[in-house]
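Q: A reviewer asked whether we had any structural model of the full assembly, not just the individual parts. We don't, so I'm hoping you can provide one. Inputs are below.
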Amino acid sequence: MAGIDKYELLSDLAKRRGFFWPSFEIYGGISGYLDLGPLGAKLKRRVEDKWLNLFVYQHGYVAISTPVITAEKVFLASGHVSNFKDLMVTCTQCKRHFKADYAITQAMPARTDIAVEAMSASEIDDFIEKNHVRCPECGGALSKSEFFSTMFKTNIGPYSDAIGYGRPEAAQGIFIDFKRVFETTREKLPLGIGQIGTVMRNEISPRQGPIRLREFTIMEMEFFFDPEEATCPYLQRVDETLLPILLAKDREQGRSEVTQVTPREAVKKGLVLTEWGAYFMALSIQFVNSLGVPKEKQRFEEKMPKERSHYSTQTFDHQILLERWGWVEVAGHAYRTDFDLSAHIKVSGTDLSVFKPYENPISKKIRVVVPQESVLGPLLKAKSKTVVEGLKAASPDDIEKSFKDSGFFEVQGFKVLPAHVRFEERTEREAGRRVVPHVVEPSYGAERLVYSALEYAYTRSKDRVVLKLPMDLAPTQVMVFPLMAKDGLPEIATRVRETLAIQGLEVDYDESGTIGRRYARADEIGVPLSVTVDYKTKEDQTVTIRDRDTWRQVRSDWRQLPEKARQYLRHEREFSELGAAVDVPYEQQETAV
Amino acid sequence: MAGIDKYELLSDLAKRRGFFWPSFEIYGGISGYLDLGPLGAKLKRRVEDKWLNLFVYQHGYVAISTPVITAEKVFLASGHVSNFKDLMVTCTQCKRHFKADYAITQAMPARTDIAVEAMSASEIDDFIEKNHVRCPECGGALSKSEFFSTMFKTNIGPYSDAIGYGRPEAAQGIFIDFKRVFETTREKLPLGIGQIGTVMRNEISPRQGPIRLREFTIMEMEFFFDPEEATCPYLQRVDETLLPILLAKDREQGRSEVTQVTPREAVKKGLVLTEWGAYFMALSIQFVNSLGVPKEKQRFEEKMPKERSHYSTQTFDHQILLERWGWVEVAGHAYRTDFDLSAHIKVSGTDLSVFKPYENPISKKIRVVVPQESVLGPLLKAKSKTVVEGLKAASPDDIEKSFKDSGFFEVQGFKVLPAHVRFEERTEREAGRRVVPHVVEPSYGAERLVYSALEYAYTRSKDRVVLKLPMDLAPTQVMVFPLMAKDGLPEIATRVRETLAIQGLEVDYDESGTIGRRYARADEIGVPLSVTVDYKTKEDQTVTIRDRDTWRQVRSDWRQLPEKARQYLRHEREFSELGAAVDVPYEQQETAV
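A: Here is a predicted structure for the entire assembly that you could use as a starting point for your response.
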């Protein structure tokens, strides 16, 4: 098996057994698209449910759903129309297009120190020229780099000016809905708003199978908090979860050692800018770990300023180590500040700030300007009203400064003199303040997580593949077999299957081939429990239950199975507690294979 | 409230409480797009899970997931590029575009007999001219009708010839994957392959709020069966479920009475062409009924030939009665035969047929042609091989006919004479046959079902809205209140909430306002159970539990709540069995409001 990596082994298994395969296969396929088969679709839904519970519902936060095709106005305001693009080079000979960084890294694979993502267009062009970078496919000369918008563009309805884009993130649907969602909840900050849904990124030429997709399911939470009350009460709950961070400053110096810190230390040392950000990073480690990826195979890579998205003040890529592709990003943790909300407030003219009442209203001394209307009225006649309003709207400080500088303050073409106004100090009661919340965002790609969970579950045991998926992820939780496909055993097994299914367990049935073959097939797709109906079942209703990981077997009344299996799958019961131990020598089981 | 219909009442409630609202609101909105708020998103996921279990998993079928943006080749082969379009008219004055049938029905709302969907372009143009149909907005003259493709079009990657469309149905992703999915399962027909996912239909100008969307979630199953073994073993299980069918032949005669038949009768009388189709229609009635829509508010409208999609041999729209829009389609049941598979086989060149082994291989007499190589060899030398192969590939009948007609049979320019071949009868063993499966398709729009469930749940009781959602749909299953927001009650209530949440229940917490107000708020969003922590809880751990529908209360130890609530929500336990009855006079409760 030398030379065959886990990606190849898994891809073969995934196709044969129904986890995933490239889309549009019968038409030659298009890179960047992936189909999830029966098992893959279930696995993905389990990953989604897990994320939703862990990040959103468990905290009392909420999740919404907004469209994929999004009005152009939204992405004009958010900055995506200007910023969501990649530098592309084209081969002057074969006319193929490449992402600029791909062309460069292909040409000089040894130069891991080149941060192409951080280069500008002209830097890329210079680099290509100086280093004689050629077409990775045919060796032809490359064009100058140009920007390619990586959003899918379309028209909404029959009007050519109604442009829509396939959203590259679910976040904008959340930002523009923030106020409405806030009002349907308890109207208190902090508030997390999650969304799971399809997003699209029109990659120039994706090449990494299930890892770089043009369409994938994002699991994203925009977490809104008051920057002046930014304490996270859960931070010490995650004290045990160290954050392994590859810091930007270390990366800049070519170092690749991670700094291990607790979330609290990370904030204290200024490595992570917000407590909430550090908390979600710790939760992220726990989440990915619960998918079967060991903590030591995870790290956070802090992005350098030029590598960050336009909306982010600090970004950490949550990466995990995969066999073929090395460190791969499965999540991004961005500190988006008030960038997006403020952009939408500005462009839409809608107030998306929230009112935060003080516990006790405070008194506040303020200076106001009082136009002397008895003087201005006779002077200005009909125009007096607009000038008075203009004065009231202006800041007293600005007016005074103007008096000092030029002797007057101009409103609507009229020169207001010091004699026209009076300054007063007043005491105002302030019941609260308006806040544009800041946002931290943990954001996951579901398909990458599905692939990663499969890669880490893939193990071999005595020349057989055992997919050791965490029990709560396994797409099929219980397999039911009749020992023989005759003598009424299939009928009983079918009843067992149906009973388990009605009780909400994910269960499947298999009657073909030897029992050993069927155990092997169940192991290969990671079924935690296999239940066999045999001749004894007809007498006393007992069945054998087999454990995927130890291949041990116990015997129990099948009518107790739904409850027992549920408890086992939730780790509330040990396998040995599922029934009376059965002494099945390994050999005996194997000869049946 | 005269003049305000349930749609308006519900839209208001939906916005205030977080079920749904129009998308892109802060940018003025775009019709045909809907956001689901925190409660709506949960409700939709519950509808999806219910459908998935009932139609797919309960039968042992499978579900997959394929991309939204789909390669043009797929929709060229399936006929969508040619057929998925609407007739559009444009106002010559205000330049607005309208779906032709909308313009006509707006102009003559009384003429319910006009089946505009069944009209051709020229029929529409004639009708508009004869009946002086004008622009519904400004009264201007209308253009001739033209086709508008209702698929969203985009480009995949930087190559302008790589066209992709937003899929208008999930079915094609299933068809092109059929063979692969078939191979990952037990390789037996029948096989249902389901898919839940986003689809897009670029409506010309959608006008029905949550009912006509440009983007929605489809829940679709393509059910593949052998047309020669088309018996549905479950048909008699649904004998009790009458199908109310508005037949095409009755519609053509202007009748609107439904024919009530059992699924078996429907097949026997030839009203429904397949047993599987009739079975899924019955299941459909049960499913929609379980969402809270009474059976008498449901019917099937058989589409007339011209109204059917290009791929369908028989179509029934499953309609339900809504207050504002009358009979609205929530599902389509189409008999797609082998149309789609055969189209993809033809265009892609991939064999999507399945091999069905006979139980006992049969012997079959066949005629073969045996080239006389001893004659042909010396005659043709090097060319002999190709001619021999050409003869073997040709049909013996064709060769004989050619001999009879012209005295020879031409292969590769060589005239084969009768003396060059011999005909033989041979007995061949046939182990099975290849089948291109036929397909019936039940297909649902999730958002319409969500809206319908809400409309039927919307009831008023003593001037209060009670959303009587079926218990298994309720987005929030349990509300937890501290009687007062002080004295340690919030802390206990929070613990109760967390315990219920960890046990997998959908639970929320509310401490603001009087207890009566909070009950009212819980009723308005359809929470089946409200739990109140009061001063007695501190002494004996008991809480009150209130029933949404009867407003009765019982008292029970909160630590037993997770199990009891789960059983109640699954209809395994009556409300009165949840605890000791509490005698709370309605008045007492109301004064607290």
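A: Points you may want to mention in the reply: Residues 372 and 421 of chain B are 5 Å apart (CA to CA). Chain B touches chain A through 84 residues (CB under 8 Å).
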